From TrEMBL:
Organism: Mycena venus
Transmembrane feature ranges: 20-38, 50-72, 124-148, 160-177, 189-210, 230-250, 262-285, 297-319
Topological relation to the membrane, as annotated: Multi-pass membrane protein
Subcellular location: Membrane
Protein name in the entry: MFS domain-containing protein
Length: 337
């Protein structure tokens, strides 16, 4: 994420974050399918299926890390594969909104100003409100799949659709956010959509596993008969809303700091504030509420997401007011929302 600050303008960052995150969701979609295939390799060449999974999924990361070390530059100005004319063009294009390859390191004064800026803590609070749903989705997905009646390898296939849908929703939402220069509003809507997914799960009966027609033609009729449109649909809505909310959130916060060194600190703090939220997301799903459908977990996530949605809307209105004040003073608006 820090690298994007050096190579992309503010109106381009959400889309680039989206591609990073969307490919993570796509990996999640393929992960289920890959696990389904590798599951049939158990004891092949004397190795267990889980060992094959670690080898085949870890090998591309190890090999690509070597290429990244030699190919990825620190700044566009230091890219060895760009001509001098291209470097000047990149620097001119980014100017005040991108690369600061020649700037001095962060001073203690800049660090203090960054740490004392209340606006940024509002961003951190919003990110905290979104974070629990990530671990909750990871935790609750197996429960939903188990409730659908899928077992063993077929259960892996059922994890594919939520991530596949999230991929396309994330890319489209981020494209729209950058195109209309409206990251806060798009994050707000995405949080509301995700909250609706959790609210639907909370309102559904614990045994809401009924189907009216064959939903997946590649599965047997007996398997389809146990498929839950309702709860599984809420899972898809929740996953799409979560992944779609993150790129505009990160694009917004990095666009409202003055230097790239400060942006690096802000991103680190943002992730640090979000991490405890993922811990919360695990503990709010109580084992003794399984028969009830985990109402505490669903309602807690719903409330936190609505809090984040309100925060996104509030910051958007605040930044608009600040820009209006700057315009009245004859200054250039510098806040992005």
């Amino acid at each position: 994420m820090v690298k994007l600050i050096f190579i992309a303008r503010t109106e381009e960052r959400s889309m680039r974050v989206a591609f990073i995150l969307a490919y993570a969701t796509l990996a999640g979609a393929f992960g289920g399918a890959i696990a389904f295939g590798i599951g049939h390799m158990n004891r092949d060449k004397g190795l267990s299926a889980w060992r094959w999974l670690f080898i085949l999924e870890g090998l591309p990361s190890c090999l690509s890390s070597v290429l990244v070390f030699f190919i990825l530059p620190d700044y566009p100005e230091t890219a060895r594969w760009l001509t001098e004319e291209e470097k000047k063009l990149v620097v001119h294009r980014l100017r005040d909104q991108g690369s600061k390859g020649s700037s001095t390191p962060m001073t203690w004064r800049e660090a203090k100003e960054t740490l004392m800026d209340w606006r940024l803590y509002a961003h951190y609070a919003i990110y905290f409100g979104v974070s629990p749903s990530f671990s909750s989705l990871s935790l609750f997905t197996p429960s939903i799949v188990a409730g659908l009646g899928f077992k063993s390898l077929k259960a892996n296939l059922m994890t594919v659709p939520p991530y596949a849908v999230a991929y396309f929703v994330t890319v489209f939402t981020s494209w729209s956010a950058d195109r209309h220069n409206s990251r806060g509003l798009h994050s707000c809507i995405a949080c509301i959509v995700e909250a609706a997914g959790f609210m639907g799960s909370a309102l559904l009966p614990a045994d809401a596993y009924a189907v009216t027609h064959s939903f997946f033609p590649f599965l047997s009729p007996a398997t389809n008969a146990s498929f839950s449109q309702h709860r599984y649909g809420c899972l898809i809505v929740g996953a799409a809303g979560f992944f779609a909310s993150i790129p505009p959130l990160l694009g917004c916060i990095t666009s409202n700091v003055l230097t790239t060194s400060a942006a690096g600190l802000v991103i680190g703090l943002n992730i640090s504030f979000g991490a405890p939220g993922q811990i919360v997301g695990v503990w709010i799903y109580k084992a003794d509420e399984a028969a009830k459908g985990y109402p505490t977990g669903h309602w807690t996530n719903c409330a936190l997401l609505l809090f984040s949605a309100a925060g996104c809307l509030g910051l958007t209105m605040y930044y608009r007011r600040l820009n209006s004040a700057l315009l009245k003073q004859g200054a250039e608006p510098r806040y992005r929302y």
